[in-house]
């Protein structure tokens, strides 16, 4: 029994790490611009799919180069989204921007369907497929890549927002756009940077999991929803809350799949989300909403 | 038209949708001056400053700063050119620390670390309370302290011209006196200031020259002493 639980925990943390990265992407964009970007899942899909495309075949790039290329492509998509879809709607209501990002996600999925069809793709594992034994549980080396990669990215983001001028300038844009203009911050550029970063995080999540979960044009849908759940579970606008929310959601799903039934895992995840929102509307780690006036 | 003014505004107009808030404002501020623009609630003072910083777009007229036309210059470039704006209601970055707020004020000077550090030290000497609370979130400060923070933040932008919007708003009389003393002191140290205020007495009391604004129009302009002595001004703004 204990071994089984250990196995569920390992799986949960792996899956949760992906949710955490997607959730972090939601939080970054929300923090910079008060927009809930429902294309976040598509960034994950584009990252994974482009890495596969760039590395495929005899003429393909080595994995590391394909990964860098895929991240850059996704960043461009993210910045184009900001520039051509979000920026023109400046001053629009929250609902309008949500509809715009949902529209963008449908568009991106459509483009992916045209380019890659409905096939499933996988990247090669980064360092072999030989499972590693931990007690009586096993873990794929790729899962360690996912956890380690996610941890590094989360710490990087944390450092960026707490210790760099650029990171703080992005936060300043979100808490008071006029004041940000008045201290000489180029608000437009900061929003582009935020979307680019968010897209890069999504892409890296997509690349890290592509060897284990396979990618297809519509992998972004469920991941986007999960990342969104992670972000609101942790308290929208609290990046580290989103990370914790992602890990928690991954663990809940994996434990309910193992101990109850895998058919219910998504439902149980969403039920817990609804309960949290009912009892703590600002999320588990959300600050009271007065902080964001 | 050549001019020795640091800031020259010609027939500036601004709208909110169909409503005209500025009806052709002309004014000038010479280097080293402290100019007060006084006017009642809704006269258009904030709109004027917002239009100068171009966070609100003008609908006509011209703004010339330091010999360059800046009427349509992007807001961040206006700050780079040397106009720093202390907005109405302080507008501090509430969740960020006091020190982060100040450092963001120095955003345009960030390449010049030595200068920023020196200026930061000066601001902490000017407002010791900010040093004491430098790790606290700016949103937890009192109104007076937030006003000091907003002023410090603007000074870190290395202003040639400081735009100051109603610093007395919501402050107790003692604090108002303190803030105005600092404004005067900054001006004496060489910062050129355009101060807009409802509190005409306090503003004209420290200013060299003054303008009176009514419904988006300049109706009077004279030396501050003359305005203080003017009967119409006394009636309308000084409660005599
Ligand atoms: N965002 C806005 N939308 C529509 N009208 C506005 C807006 N802001 C200001 N106004 C109008 O423009 C006019 C000038 O307002 P403004 O805020 O510039 O006045 P003010 O002199 O700064 O007043 P106060 O002393 O109250 O700060 C007012 O009639 C006001 O109602
Ligand atoms: Mg005003």
Automatic annotation (TrEMBL), chain A:
Top-rank taxon, per record: Bacteria
Q: Does the keyword Cell membrane apply?
A: yes
The UniProt transmembrane annotation reads 6-29, 63-81, 93-116, 144-161, 182-210, 230-252, 264-283
Its keywords, alphabetically, are: Amino-acid transport, Cell membrane, Membrane, Transmembrane, Transmembrane helix, Transport
**Which GO terms fall under molecular function for this chain's record?**
transmembrane transporter activity
Q: Name one GO cellular component term.
A: plasma membrane
One biological process term in Gene Ontology: amino acid transport
Localization (cell): Cell inner membrane
**Topology with respect to the bilayer:** Multi-pass membrane protein
Tell me the protein family, please.
Belongs to the binding-protein-dependent transport system permease family. LivHM subfamily.
Protein name per UniProt = Branched-chain amino acid ABC transporter permease
Query: What is this organism's lineage?
Result: Bacteria, Pseudomonadati, Pseudomonadota, Gammaproteobacteria, Chromatiales
TrEMBL record, chain B:
InterPro entries, alphabetically?
Answer: AAA+_ATPase, ABC_branched_ATPase_LivF/BraG, ABC_transporter-like_ATP-bd, ABC_transporter-like_CS, BCAA_Transport_ATP-bd_LivF, P-loop_NTPase
What keywords were assigned to this record? Amino-acid transport, ATP-binding, Nucleotide-binding, Transport
Keyword Nucleotide-binding recorded: yes
Signal sequence interval, chain numbering: none
Q: Gene3D superfamilies recorded for this chain?
A: P-loop containing nucleotide triphosphate hydrolases
Which molecular function GO terms apply here? ATP binding; ATP hydrolysis activity; branched-chain amino acid transmembrane transporter activity
Query: GO biological process annotations for this chain's record?
Result: L-amino acid transport
Q: Where is the ABC transporter domain?
A: 7-240
Query: Which family does the similarity line name?
Result: Belongs to the ABC transporter superfamily.
**Entry protein name:** High-affinity branched-chain amino acid transport ATP-binding protein
Source organism: Sedimenticola selenatireducens
């Amino acid at each position: 029994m204990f071994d089984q639980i250990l196995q569920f925990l390992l799986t949960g943390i792996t899956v949760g790490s992906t949710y955490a990265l997607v959730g972090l992407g939601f939080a970054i964009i929300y923090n910079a611009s008060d927009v809930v970007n429902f294309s976040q899942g598509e960034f994950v899909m584009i990252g994974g799919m482009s890495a596969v495309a760039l590395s495929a075949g005899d003429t393909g790039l080595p994995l590391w180069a394909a990964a860098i290329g895929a991240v850059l492509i996704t960043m461009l998509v993210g910045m184009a989204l900001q520039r051509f879809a979000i920026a023109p709607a400046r001053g629009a209501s929250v609902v309008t921007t949500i509809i715009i990002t949902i529209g963008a996600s449908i568009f991106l999925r459509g483009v992916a369907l045209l380019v890659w069809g409905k096939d499933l793709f996988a990247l090669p594992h980064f360092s072999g497929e030989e499972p590693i034994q931990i007690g009586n549980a096993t873990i794929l080396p790729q899962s360690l890549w996912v956890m380690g990669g996610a941890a590094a990215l989360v710490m990087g983001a944390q450092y960026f927002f707490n210790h760099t001028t650029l990171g703080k300038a992005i936060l300043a844009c979100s808490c008071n756009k006029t004041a940000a203009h008045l201290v000489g911050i180029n608000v437009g550029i900061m929003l582009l940077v935020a979307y680019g970063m968010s897209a890069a995080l999504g892409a890296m999540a997509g690349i890290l999991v592509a060897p284990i979960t396979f990618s297809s044009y519509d992998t972004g849908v469920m991941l986007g929803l999960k990342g969104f759940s992670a972000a609101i579970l942790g308290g929208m606008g609290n990046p580290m809350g989103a990370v914790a929310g992602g890990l928690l959601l991954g663990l809940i799903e994996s434990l309910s799949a193992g101990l109850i039934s895998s058919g219910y895992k998504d439902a149980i995840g969403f039920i817990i989300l609804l309960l949290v929102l009912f009892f703590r509307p600002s999320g588990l780690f959300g600050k009271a909403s007065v902080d964001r006036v | 038209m050549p001019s020795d003014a640091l800031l020259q505004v010609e027939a500036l107009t601004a709208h909110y949708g169909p409503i005209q808030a500025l009806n052709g404002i002309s004014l000038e501020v010479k280097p080293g001056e402290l100019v007060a623009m006084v006017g009642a609630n809704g006269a258009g003072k904030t709109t004027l400053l917002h239009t100068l910083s171009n966070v609100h777009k003008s609908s006509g007229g011209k703004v010339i700063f330091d010999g360059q036309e800046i009427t349509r210059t992007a807001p961040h470039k206006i700050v780079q050119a040397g106009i720093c704006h202390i907005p109405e209601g302080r507008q501090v970055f509430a969740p960020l620390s006091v020190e982060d707020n100040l450092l963001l004020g120095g955003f345009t000077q960030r390449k010049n670390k030595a200068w920023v550090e020196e200026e930061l030290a000066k601001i902490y000497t000017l407002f010791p309370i900010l040093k004491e609370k430098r790790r606290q979130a700016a949103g937890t400060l009192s109104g007076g302290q937030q006003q000091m923070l907003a002023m410090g933040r603007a000074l870190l932008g290395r202003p040639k011209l400081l735009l100051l919007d109603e610093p007395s708003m919501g402050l107790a009389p003692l604090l108002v006196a303190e803030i105005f003393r600092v404004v005067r002191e900054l001006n004496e140290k060489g910062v050129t200031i355009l101060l807009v205020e409802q509190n005409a007495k306090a503003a004209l009391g420290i200013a060299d020259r003054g303008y009176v604004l009514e419904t988006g129009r300049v109706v009077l302009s004279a030396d501050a002493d003359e305005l203080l002595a003017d009967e119409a001004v006394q009636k309308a703004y000084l409660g005599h």
